[in-house]
Design a protein that fits this description.
By secondary structure, the protein is of the alpha+beta class. It folds into two domains: 54 residues, no CATH class; 31 residues, no CATH class. Helix content is 15%, strand content 25%. The protein has two helices and four strands. Strands 1-2-3-4 form a four-stranded antiparallel beta sheet, with no helix packed on it. Strand 3 and strand 4 form a beta hairpin. The two termini are 19 Å apart. 8% of the residues are buried. The mean pLDDT is 78.
Length: 92
């Protein structure tokens, strides 16, 4: 995960939007490979392995209504053809 992206991560828990802090255990060419991201407000922590933050079961909080699914392309900035979004795990 590019370190510039890590700076934009916000805690997914239901409280005031709070930027996550990072403990980098391994960085290769500006990419976070291994470490931990954590929230200074709720003290939740998530592991970073292989450059991926493992948010795990927290994705269960984000179940979408049919209306939200119809709106999601606009929210993701996908109004124009040729844009891509990569999802993985429960969020997919």
């Amino acid at each position: 995960m590019d370190l510039a992206l890590v700076e934009r991560l916000i805690c997914p828990r239901p409280h005031q939007a709070t930027p996550l802090v990072v403990r980098a255990d391994e960085v290769v060419e500006g990419n976070l490979v291994r470490g931990v991201v954590g929230c200074p407000q709720c003290f939740a922590e998530w592991t970073v392995r292989g450059g991926v933050v493992e948010f795990g079961a927290i994705a269960e909080m984000f179940r979408c209504s049919p209306q939200m699914l119809r709106q999601s392309p606009a929210l993701l900035g996908l109004a124009e053809a040729g844009r891509l979004v990569l999802t993985d795990g429960a969020s997919a």
